[in-house]
Write a structure and sequence with these properties.
Elements (H helix, E strand, L loop, with lengths): L8 H33 L10 E4 L2 E2 L9 E3 L2 E5 H7 L5 E3 L4 E6 L2 E6 L4 E4 L2 E4 L5 E3 L2 E5 L4 H4 L1 E6 L4 E6 L4 E6 L3 E4 L8 E5 L4 E8 L2 E5 L5 E5 L3 E8 L12 E6 L20 E4 L2 E3 L5 E3 L2 H13 L3 E2 L2 E3 L5 H9 L2 H17 L4 E5 L8 H17 L3 E6 L14 H7 L2 E5 L17 H14 L7 E6 L1 E7 L5 E8 L3 H4 L6 E4 L4 E8 L2 E6 L3 H13 L4 E5 L8 H8 L1
Parallel strand pairs: 1-13, 21-22, 21-36, 22-25, 23-26, 26-27, 27-28, 28-29, 29-30, 30-36
Antiparallel strand pairs: 1-2, 3-4, 4-11, 5-6, 6-7, 7-8, 8-9, 10-11, 12-13, 14-17, 14-20, 15-16, 17-18, 18-19, 23-24, 31-32, 31-35, 33-34, 34-35
Helix pairs in contact: 6-7, 11-12
Length: about 575
């Protein structure tokens, strides 16, 4: 029988160290468990010292510029914060001492002196008005629930204002047992609330083993997913239905302000989905004159029977209209009168949208024209109408180009139509192309990159005409004449030589007759195809063509194939 070996001194020391390490590890685990238990079960966040704001299950209190006011059961939020969270174009109309705010299909006007509000032209009584405190404007958001499309709840116990969009899906569930709501999914997390079995909660997001919820106290946090029971959808997402599926293919059908609408019965225009007839224009008194009549009503019926949407032009064309337009833009009341007239006509004639074609405006009215579009858009949206706005190339004269804020217009309107023609227009003292490919692409990039217009809202408008320029012996321009695309071949001499310009992507012709030099940059099927290629290249919203009657027969098929 062997004798047991005696442990050496070194072995005994090593064993003691291992025992000590094990003991320390056990103690540490016990301490961690106690800390976790205390953190998870006993550390509950104190109630808020200031009013917190939760919007669509996100705590945005840290983004508030001013504190929320609670007075006489009314919740007031500052104009700066409403601008940040709901309406970036909220506007103080100092002339009439009122605030104008727009959101989706609502425009609301609220003053400081009377408990009333005007929403989409209709007056309603309120329990509060706008107020000013220390140069800060506050609006009673509890009175504006319908304007912003929200539900509002103030939880006095936790000093939380919870706002939910009624257009967003909401899910609710029941807790299957008593539980604590954690601030995070981490092993050690603070308890932000406790919930009893059978309590209803809002389900924010399902994240595997954990579900993020909002409690009846307005607290946001996590519980184990297995504790969630009887989840139901209490509110569905409201999806926006687009009037035009795919790309817009619009043609302007211009026939002057006094002529009758053309009789197009029995005809179709292959591939188009929108027509924009010359129905409306401003007169010298600043009022809309309509040019519809029975011929226009027949035109609308023809369009609808063929599946075309009708977005008539509203124009401010004509001499002396700059001051008239400015007068309207500078007055809230006049803007509203114009808007009400437009809405009335849209309903009366069963239209599908409006095309605002305001040109030659004062540069100093740039923001006020934007206000007009901002205030028109929700009224049209309310009745399911589309708003398109025509604008020129970004760089140019004050009254032709710099009178448009393309960033705002592109953000607000359903479509921004870039009139990509008259690069060298009728008033130019230099002969040049109507619409060169390189010029169009350069300006498209400005719309998309500099002015941040969404590509699918930008429509490229192409010309169905060119200009024939006349020069004297010294090379001075003595005249020009717009030539429809379908008349160009018969206008230029048969023996004239066509030269292709790769940058402009169009043919150039120069010839002499009776001692004068003539120049024309031709718009034809080849130049059209080049321009249309930019629509898919930059994922634009579609094409518009100026104007019906100038085209070659194959134009519509070419546009259809190239979209």
């Amino acid at each position: 029988m062997k004798k047991a070996k005696r442990m050496t001194k070194e072995q005994i020391t090593k064993k003691k160290k291992n025992i000590i390490r094990t003991f320390i590890t056990i103690v540490a685990l016990i301490v961690i468990a106690i800390i976790a238990y205390i953190a998870n079960e006993f550390i509950i966040l104190d109630n808020n010292k200031t009013t917190n704001l939760i919007i669509n299950n996100k705590n945005v209190t840290g983004n508030l510029k001013k504190e929320i006011l609670i007075q006489d059961d009314e919740i007031y939020i500052s104009m700066q914060d409403l601008q940040n969270f709901f309406d970036k174009y909220i506007y103080e109309d100092t002339e009439n001492n009122q605030i104008i705010t727009t959101y989706e299909d609502k425009i609301a006007v609220i003053g400081f002196d009377e408990n009333k509000m005007i929403v989409n032209g209709s007056e309603k009584s309120t329990y509060a008005s706008a107020i000013k405190q220390e140069d800060t404007i506050y609006l009673p958001i509890t009175e504006m629930k319908d304007v912003y499309g929200i539900d509002i709840e103030y939880i006095e116990k936790t000093k939380i204002v919870a706002i939910d969009s009624i257009a967003r899906e909401q899910k609710k569930a029941i807790l299957s047992k008593n539980t604590s709501v954690k601030s995070s999914k981490n092993f050690i997390a603070k308890t932000v609330d406790r919930i009893d079995k059978g309590t209803s909660v809002i389900v924010v997001s399902e994240e595997g083993k954990y579900t993020r919820i909002r409690t009846e106290n307005g607290k946001l946090g996590y519980v184990k997913s297995k504790l969630i029971a009887n989840t139901i959808v209490t509110r569905q997402n409201i999806e926006k239905k687009e009037q035009i599926e795919g790309k817009v293919n619009l043609v302007w059908d211009y026939y002057s302000q006094v002529a009758k609408a053309p009789d197009r019965e029995g005809t179709t225009i292959d591939g188009i989905n929108v027509v924009s007839p010359a129905f409306f224009h401003l007169n010298s008194e600043g009022e809309i004159e309509e040019n519809i009549g029975s011929a226009g009503e027949d035109y609308i019926k023809w369009a609808h029977d063929n599946g075309y949407k009708v977005w008539p032009m509203v124009q401010n064309a004509g001499t002396g209209m700059m001051d008239v337009t400015s007068s309207i833009m500078n007055s809230y009341d006049k803007r509203q009168e114009l808007i009400e007239t437009i809405i009335t006509y849209c309903v009366e004639y069963d239209l599908d949208g409006i095309n605002i074609d305001f040109e030659n405006m004062k540069k100093e009215d740039v923001d006020l024209f934007s206000r007009f579009i901002i205030e028109l858009e929700p009224r049209l949206k309310e009745i399911g109408q589309v708003l398109s706005v025509d604008v020129t190339a970004p760089d140019g004269a004050d009254t032709w180009s710099l009178c448009f804020d393309r960033t705002v217009l592109g953000d607000v309107a359903d479509y921004l139509i870039f009139m990509a023609y008259d690069q060298y227009g009728g008033s130019s003292n230099v002969a040049g192309t109507t619409a060169g490919y390189d010029w169009i692409e350069l300006n498209l990039k400005k719309f998309l990159e500099t002015y941040e217009v969404e590509s699918d809202k930008l429509i490229l408008a192409v010309p169905l005409y060119a200009r024939l320029w006349t020069e004297d012996a010294n090379g001075n321009v003595t005249g020009q004449e717009p030539i429809p695309m379908n008349e160009i071949d018969e206008t230029i001499p048969q023996d004239a030589e066509k030269t292709w310009d790769e940058e402009l992507k169009q043919y150039y012709v120069e010839y002499e007759r009776n001692g004068r030099k003539y120049k024309i940059w031709i718009e034809d099927i080849e130049s059209l195809k080049a321009k249309l290629s930019l629509i898919n290249q930059y994922n634009l919203g579609g094409v518009a063509a100026w104007e019906k009657g100038m085209e070659l027969d194959e134009v519509w098929q070419v546009i259809k194939e190239n979209l």
